[in-house]
Design brief:
By secondary structure, this protein is α/β, with parallel strands linked by helices. The protein has three domains: 3-82, Winged helix-like DNA-binding domain superfamily/Winged helix DNA-binding domain (Arc Repressor Mutant, subunit A, Orthogonal Bundle); 86-160 and 264-289, D-Maltodextrin-Binding Protein, domain 2; 162-263, D-Maltodextrin-Binding Protein, domain 2, CATH 3.40.190. The protein is built from twelve helices and eleven strands. The protein has helices at residues 3-15, 18-25, 29-43, 59-83, 98-103, 105-115, 128-136, 175-180, 197-208, 222-230, 240-244, 278-289; strands spanning 48-51, 54-57, 90-96, 119-125, 142-146, 154-169, 189-191, 216-218, 236-239, 252-255, 263-271. The strands form three sheets. Strands 3, 4, 5, 6, 9, 10 and 11 form a seven-stranded mixed sheet that branches. The protein has a two-stranded antiparallel ribbon with strand order 1-2. Strands 7-8 form a two-stranded parallel ribbon. Strand 7, helix 9 (197-208) and strand 8 form a beta-alpha-beta unit. Helix 1 crosses helix 2, helix 1 packs across helix 4 and helix 2 packs across helix 3. The chain is globular and about 65 Å long. It starts with a helix and ends in a 7-residue tail after the last helix. Mean pLDDT is 88; it is low at 290-296.
Amino acid sequence: MELIDLLTFSAVARTGGITRAAEELNTVQSNVTQRVKALEAEIGTALFERHSRGMTLTGAGRRLFPYAERMAALSREALLAARDDGEPKGPLSIGSMETTAAVRLPLLLAEFHRRFPAVQLTLKTATTAELVAAVLDGTLDGAFVAAPIEHAELVTTVAFREELVLVTPRRFASLAALRAGTMESGPTALVFRTGCTYRQRLEQVFSDFGWPSAARFELGTLDGMIGCVAAGMGVSLLPRAVVERSEQRNDVSLLALDTPWAHVDTLFVSRRAAHQSSALSGLASCLNGGECVVAA
């Protein structure tokens, strides 16, 4: 199998079509088509189903895809390792939960960029589950995720410690008022999508309060979440520091919790077997010592 064929296959699988894959690979469509056909001929089966909306993976394609993605990540890692002369530069892909990106990362990343302007930093926000998967498959160099994370292939460093609070409409000044002022099934839980650690903890809190069957409403943004709470739509669980810096802080109440779910560490995770680039070492040193100095 030619590496270029696998990289081309991976691009088509991710983008869902020849045209978009060609744009991503900076080549012409005929080259992409030829590579895919060559790989299918070598394997002896179709990897894609062609239809009017694009291309989707067959069973064989789905089985091949994770291997192709790992090969792509390993190829990228090998190139970066060969070019790494100890001076932080080149691409660095970092992931983060949206709450961490909004409150904890701006000053850190601004200082990192000031000291290492040759590093081409990109930031992706997603849930903890999605971020961990992306680090493991090599799509991301590292990510800020919620603890606990225990995985033999990951190196973890405590980056921040957060106090989680119930964020409620302003009229609820205490947990007692919240319990008294809602239906027996509990208030609506305003949550991010499945895979979010804060969602899991809110569901645990609601279960402790006797509201396991409370309605859930998924939202995609932090501002939308706090805004819906302020409008009286429901209750959420978020880091205190996030809400206190929100422009809508005065429109909601923050209720402290005396439960095991009230505190959570934000971890920075990276792949244990991956090459520790100078750029990643520089970022890690910012977390460890507060100064962006490349680790020796």
